[in-house]
Amino acid sequence: MSIEDLERGGLLLPREEWGQPPAARTGRFALLPIGLGAVCSGWLMSAGDGGVLTWAGLGLFLVVLAAFTLVSLRSIR
After folding, report:
1. Given CB 3.0 to 4.6 Å as the disulfide criterion, which of 17, 51, 60, 76 pairs with 13?
2. CA 19 to CA 17: how far, in whole Å?
3. In a domain, 32, yes or no
């Protein structure tokens, strides 16, 4: 396939946009609570020592992981 074929198929950016960094669609504000939640979940799992706090930390980690995945997927659409 040539570059022209890829452009006609809509798989490439227009030539005017080549060499420019892509604009991020995800604001850093959306990632801040996710990062804080990840740190808190790690602390809870460590401080829990196998008890209830460990499971609370694991639950928070799974929620944060799902939120990070959703935010990341929305940013590339």
Report:
1. 17
2. 6
3. yes
